[in-house]
Amino acid sequence: MFTKSKIAAIALTSSFAFASTAQAENVSLERYVTSMVNQAMEVAQQEVKNNVRSAVLTVANNISFDEAKTYTAKVTITDLESVEVTKEQTE
């Protein structure tokens, strides 16, 4: 009988401990979506950088300077225009 009450007390105490740690901070939908978009933009920027590096290295490895021909690469980088979007425009 005493063992059953000990087990019940331990189970109750552990459930309180788990319940108290499971409460999360309330985050607004706007903050959540903003953080998700920022993460996606960072990933996209990193992928573009990696693709540019890969293309440049591929071209550099394919060039042979033993031949009489000369090769030059023309690389142009165009910055995209930054546009501010207001809350009313998104609705």
Please characterize this protein's 3D structure:
This protein is an all-alpha fold. Helix content is about 65%, strand content about 0%. It contains three helices and no strands. It has helices spanning about 1-20, 30-60, 85-90. The mean pLDDT is about 75.
List the helices and strands and how they pair.
Layout: H1 2-21, H2 29-62, H3 87-90
According to DSSP, the number of beta strands is 0
User: What structural category do the secondary elements indicate?
Assistant: mainly alpha
Shape: elongated
Helix content: 55-70%
H/E series, N to C? HHH
The end-to-end span amounts to 63 Å
Describe the sheet with the most strands: none
Radius of gyration: 29 Å
What is the residue-averaged pLDDT?
A: 75
Low-confidence stretches: none
Q: Could you give a short description of this structure?
A:
The protein is mostly helical and 91 residues long. The chain has helices at residues 2-21, 29-62, 87-90.
Q: What attributes characterize this protein structure?
A:
single chain, 91 residues, mainly alpha, 3 helices, 64% helix
